[in-house]
Amino acid sequence: MFGLWGKIIRVDLSKSKVTIEDVPEDKARNYLGGSGLATMYLYDEVPKGADPLGPENELIIMTGPLTGFASPSASRYNVTCKSPLTNGWGNANSGGFWAAEFKKTGFDGVIFQGVSPNPVYLVVTDDKAELRDASFVWGKDVAATTDLIQEKLGKDYNVLCIGPAGEIKVRYAAVMNDKHRAAGRGGVGAVMGSKQVKAVAVKGTKRPKLANEAAFNEAARKQFDIVDSSAMKVGFTAYGTSFGVDVVNVRGGFPTRNWQTGVFPEVEKIGSTALCGEGAPLYDTKPCYACPIRCGRLTKIEKGPYAGRSGEGPEYETLGALGGMNVITDIEAICAANYICNDLGLDTISTGSCIAFATECYEKGLITKEDTGGIELRFGDPALLVELTEKIAKREGFGDFLAEGVKRMAEKIGKGSEAFAMHVKGLELPCYDSRAAKITGLAYATANRGGDHITAFVQGPTFFDMPFLIIEESKIKDVLKEDPAEAKVVKDLEEALTTIDAAGACKFMGLCLDAEGIAATIAGATGFEFSKEDFRRTGERIYNLARAFNVREGMTKADDTLPKRLLEDPLPEGPAKGHVNNLAILLDPYYEMRGWDKETGKPTQQKLKELGLDYVIKDIWG
Fold first, then answer.
1. Of 377, 397, 517, 592, which shows the fewest CB atoms inside 10 Å?
2. Cα separations (Å) of 492 from 57, 160, 441, 540?
3. Which of 297, 325, 328 has its CA nearest to residue 310?
4. 10 — alpha (psi -120 to 50), left (phi > 0) or beta?
5. pLDDT value at residue 387
6. Which residues are CB-contacts of 348 (< 8 A; sequence separation ≥ 6)?
7. What is the greatest pairwise CA distance in the chain?
8. What's the N-to-C CA distance of the chain in angstroms?
9. What is the reported pLDDT for 472?
10. 448-482: string of b/e by CB count within 10 Å (b at 16+)?
11. CATH (domain of 475)
12. Within 10 Å of residue 47's Cβ, how many Cβ atoms?
C-alpha cells in the first residue's frame, strides 16, 4: 500500500496485550485514513449504548495518507471515540509534529480498547510498540510528562499525552502533543484518562512510499506556490488566528457576556494588536510540520501577576471563549488561563463557555454562593477566570460542577437556564454568533460532533469573505438572510473538510486550495484513482457513517437545533441588531440535499446504499 503503511497497532489494555494488524486496502480506498478510518472502526467495534468512559468505548488515534509528506500542512492526526460530552460521535484533530513522527514508525494509527488496571503509556518505534508503566508521570502536567518521558527515552521522542484534567475525566479534557497543541474538542482526553493511558511516545526513521512521486511532488509544489502567494498567508503569518477577533467583532458576531451580545466594546484590548503589537505577549511564530503559514503563536507574559509564564497561543477561539464570553479585557490573564488549559489538558472553548454560563446563572440568581462554594461569580474578573480554570482542571470545589459541561450544568440547575446554555448536542459553541451570519447556525446544528465551527468552517465565506476554492460553485449572497439554496454550502464544506481530515492535512488548506489539487496529492501518494468527484464522495461517505453512529446512539432530528437564545433573542446591537436564527428555513432543504429523511433526520436507505453503507441500514432503520 502507498501513502499509508496499511498497519495499525491494537492495544487491549485489559489484557496488557499489543498486536499489529493490517488495514484492508478496500477500507483505505473508501475511508483514506484519519477521521475516516477511525469512524469506520468506531462504528464497527463500539457497541450501541456503550458508556463513553467505560471499557467498551475505544480511543482511536489515526493519521492520513498525506501525513508526514511534503504537502502543505500535512501534519494532522485525529482522535476518535464516543464522546463523554455528547454521547455521540466524538472527534478531535491536532497538528504540530507528533503525527509526522508517528507516521515514521511504520504505522498509520493505534486503537486502545478496554481499561488498563494501572497507568500506562505506549512507546512506538520502527515497526514495534510496547506498553510501559506510567506511574512516574501519572498526576503530572503536560510539560512535566513530556520532559520526564523524554528524560527516560531520549529527547528525540515526540510525546502525546493527557494532563491531570484527562486523568480525572473532566468531560472536555484534551489530548495534547508537542506540549502546547491540543486535540481539544469533545472530551477525548477524558476517554484516554478513563483507560488509564497517560501518553504515546514515538520515534521513527521510516517513510512510506509514494505511489507516484513525480505526480505527487508536482501537485504539492503547485499547492505551496498558491499558499505562498495567498492573502491568507499574509494575514495568518502576521497575526495568526487572532486577526479574527477584530473582523468578527466588526460584524457584530463576537459572542460577549455568554452570547448576550455580539459586540465587545473593548476589543482592542484582546484583539490582534493586543496580542501581536508592540509590547504585546507575542515573541515568535511557530509552524506545524510542512506548513508554509506559521499561524502558531509563541507568547510570554512580561508584566502583572502572571509575569514569566509562557507557552503557545492563545488562538482566536481562546481569545473569544476566555475573553469575550467572560468580558475579560486583560490579555495577560487570558494568556495565563490559556497556558493552564494547555498544561493541565483542557479544551479552551468549553472551559470559557462553562465559566460564562455559570456567571450568567449567578447574575440571574439561579445559583448562589452556597452552590459555588462561596465564590462570587462576575463577568470581567481576570483573577477569577484564572482561578476557575485551574479549579476545573482539578475538579476542585465548584470546578467539579463546571467540569461537566454546560448541557449537564443546565440540566441540574434548571429554572430556564437551558435557554442560554450555549451548546449543540452537548458540545459548547465556538466564538461566532450565528445570528450575524445565518448559515453558520445550520452548520452548528448539523455538525456530527455537536456545536462546532470547523466541521464546515462556513465562517470562512461569511465572517471572513474567503472564497473557498474547494467548493467554488457554492456561494453566500447575504449573510443576514436564510436562503434555502445556500444549505448546499454547508453540505459541500462538511464533505470537503471531512476528506481533508481523513487525508491528514490541515483544514486551513481548504481556504485557498481547490479540490482538484488536493485530490491530485492524495492520488499521487496512494495510487488510488482519486478525482475531484472521489474527493467529494469520500467525505460524504464518512459524514454519513458518523451520522449513522449518532442515530444508532439515539440522536434524532430534534437534536439538530440551536440554543433558544439564538432562535428567540435578537442581537441587541451592532450590524446584526434585531436578528435571530430561523433554522427551519434551512434544515429541510439541507436534509433533501443530503438524502436524509425529513421526518427523522436519518440517512435514507437509498443514500446509504449509494455510498456503500448498506450494512448500517438495519442498525438505524430496523
1. 592
2. 30, 32, 15, 9
3. 297
4. beta
5. 98
6. 182, 184, 313, 314, 315, 317, 318, 321, 322, 337, 338, 341
7. 67
8. 37
9. 67
10. bbbbbbbbbbbbbbbbbebebbbbeebebeebeeb
11. 1.10.599.10
12. 9
Per DSSP bridges, beta strands 282-286 and 296-300 are antiparallel
Positive/negative CA dihedral, 211, 613, 598, 411: negative
**Sheet of 282-286, strand order:** 282-286, 296-300, 310-312
Range of the domain at 506: 428-621
Query: What is the per-residue pLDDT for 512?
Result: 81
Helix (H) or strand (E) holding 148: helix 142-153
Pair 469, 222: CB distance under 8 Å: no
Grid cell listed for 311: 507557552
What pLDDT is stored for residue 490 in this prediction? 96
135 and 21 co-located in one domain: yes
Q: What is the pLDDT of residue 430?
A: 97
Q: For the segment 355-400, what is each residue's pLDDT rounded down to a tens digit?
A: 999 999 999 999 999 999 999 999 999 999 999 999 999 999 999 9
* Count of alpha carbons within 13 angstroms of residue 110, beta-carbon side: 29
Q: Vertex 302, ends 299 and 307: CA angle to 5°?
A: 100
Does 347 reside within a domain? yes
The three cell numbers locating residue 610: 449509494
User: Which are the contacts of 500, defined by CB distance < 8 A and separation ≥ 6?
Assistant: 506, 507, 509, 510, 518
Residue stretches of the chain with pLDDT short of 50: none
Residue 536 sits in the same domain as residue 479: yes
Residues contacting 427, CB < 8 A, separation 6+:
83, 85, 86, 185, 186, 350, 449, 450, 451, 452
User: Nine-digit cell at 179?
Assistant: 506540549
**pLDDT at residue 568, as a whole number:** 98
Q: Which of 397, 421, 445 is the last residue of a domain?
A: 421
